[in-house]
Write a structure and sequence with these properties.
This protein folds into two domains: 213 residues, Nucleotidyltransferase, domain 5 (2-Layer Sandwich); 220 residues, ATPase, nucleotide binding domain (Nucleotidyltransferase, domain 5, 2-Layer Sandwich). The chain contains 19 helices and 19 strands. The protein is of the alpha+beta class and 471 residues long. The chain has a seven-stranded mixed beta sheet, with helices on both faces. The protein has a two-stranded antiparallel sheet with strand order 1-2.
């Protein structure tokens, strides 16, 4: 993506899109990180000329480097089964209560902490001299400069959100060497310049600085929320739904831990207080399953039929870890309905409606819980990311939350990436609130008001209570 930033304007353009196909080999699911890097190089070539570059990606995964800076094998995918049982093993060394008090991070079985526990004793980890999170690895290949960007580091379950630094207590308890991580850097810090070989490969004319952006894609997405005031909740939608509030300090109570909220770090000293929800992955996996069975579905038709399906008939817990792995999602949804006493959907439209109703309910519960736990009230919900294209999901979220939903931008991560670069280079000025005002005036947005057309407030309340008592 390229961004053009000027006085009161931010424009975004897609210049190159490339596939991201994980590969299973030797029983382990890997990222094809070399193919991703080639896609980055191709994208830089297509984007020429550029004044600055920044890299954001998903969280928790990493590559290991040897003493010469060479990559020790393809990074393992967070959906791989190697972390099964690791949380229990780590809890023998540090209790969940202690771990949350130090890091404030939601329990997720694939957090970097558990991946490193799973890797203990392997030849790769024994040979490793350094660990780079995925965006830092790509940035290193572009510049030759190593660093650990803070927003992504905060997802490792090794960072204390109060000090905004690594926690020696957690690392010692979990037997993890913090020396594996290069020094921390903040969003907006310089991260080097494109290497001569990269300039030659891409046809760019140097020097081209690389800026450390908010390299966790959700951190970039939240930075691009076009809110008018601070009284907002956000939902970053896509494969995952990340729903919560932007705070100035973490919430580390045990009640917050039991509610499975996370305290990840954002730009300008903020905390992203949120709950991870399985997201549109549920629908994506249904579509993949039906296609593999010879029953491909047209998404536009499916969503139209889902909108006409009875509301709130079948709902599931969209945070259930049983939905994490790839595979037959309709079967798992049917099993979940049976376990909780809900009717099993009868056709693809029913499954789609089940997924979207369930996501809207999960959004409602997350927004309600975040306000209660953080003692903070909101007046509106902002939906950003790919889910803004799903009008039914946006409307259901407004109905479920009983709050207006502002949808947009869809490419929030790319916009957040661009505005952090622009601010670092002086093209944009001010704090994140000033940046958001520019975005609000520059972007097309759509607002959904609670309508009652897809279930009355009482029906949504009953469905939410059903989930609370069954999960």
């Amino acid at each position: 993506m390229t961004g053009h930033v000027g006085p009161g304007t931010v424009e975004l353009r897609e210049v190159h899109r490339f596939p991201n196909r994980p590969v299973r080999t030797g029983g382990t699911l890997h990222w094809d990180v070399l193919a991703l890097y080639q896609g980055v190089l191709d994208g830089l070539r297509a984007a020429s000329p550029v004044d600055s570059a920044g890299v954001d990606s998903w969280a928790v995964d990493y590559g290991l480097l040897d003493a010469h800076g060479a990559l020790l094998g393809n990074p393992v995918h967070y959906r791989d089964a190697r972390t099964d049982g690791m949380a229990a093993r780590v809890s023998e060394r540090i209790t969940p209560e202690e771990l949350y008090a130090h890091t404030g991070l939601q329990h997720l079985p694939f957090n970097t902490l558990y991946q490193l526990a799973a890797a203990r004793g392997t030849p790769q980890l024994a040979a490793a001299q350094q660990l780079l999170l995925i965006p830092d690895l790509l940035s290193y290949w572009l510049t030759g400069v190593r660093g650990t960007e803070l927003t992504n580091a905060s997802t490792t379950q090794l960072v204390d959100p109060r000090t905004r630094d690594f926690s020696p207590a957690v690392a010692e308890a979990a037997d993890i060497e913090l020396s594996l991580f290069p020094p921390l850097r903040q969003p907006g810090d310089p991260a080097g310049e494109l290497l001569p070989e990269v300039l030659e490969e891409t046809g760019l004319t140097g020097p081209v600085p690389v800026t450390a952006v908010a390299s966790h894609d959700t951190a970039s997405a939240v930075a691009a929320v076009p809110a008018a005031t601070g009284r907002f909740a956000y939902i970053a939608t896509g494969t995952w739904s990340l729903a919560g509030l932007e705070l100035t300090s973490p919430v580390l109570s045990d009640e917050s831990r039991q509610a499975n909220f996370t305290n990840e770090l954002g730009v300008d000293g903020t905390v992203r207080y949120l709950r991870n929800i399985m997201g549109l992955w549920l629908l994506q996996e249904c579509l993949r399953t039906w296609e593999s069975q010879g029953r491909p579905q047209d998404l536009e038709t499916l969503l139209r039929d889902a909108a006409a399906a009875p509301p709130l008939r079948s709902v599931i817990d969209a945070g259930d870890p049983r939905f994490l792995a790839p595979g037959d999602m309709p079967r798992r949804i049917a099993d979940a309905c049976r376990r909780t006493g809900r009717p099993v959907p009868e056709d693809p439209a029913g499954y789609a409606r089940c997924v979207l109703d369930s996501l809207a309910l999960a959004h409602r519960l997350a927004v309600e819980d975040a306000q209660r736990l953080a003692a903070r009230e909101v007046d509106a919900v902002h939906v950003v990311g790919g889910g803004v294209h799903n009008a039914l999901l946006c409307q259901l979220t407004a109905d479920a939350c009983r709050l207006p939903v502002t949808a947009g931008p869809a490419e929030a991560s790319a916009l957040g990436n661009v505005v952090v670069q622009a601010r670092a280079h002086g093209t944009l000025r001010g704090d994140i609130g000033d940046v958001r005002r520019v975005l609000r005036g520059a972007l097309p947005l759509r607002t959904y008001e609670p309508s009652g057309d897809h279930g009355s407030p009482q029906e949504w309340a009953r469905a939410a209570q059903h989930l609370r008592t069954r999960t």
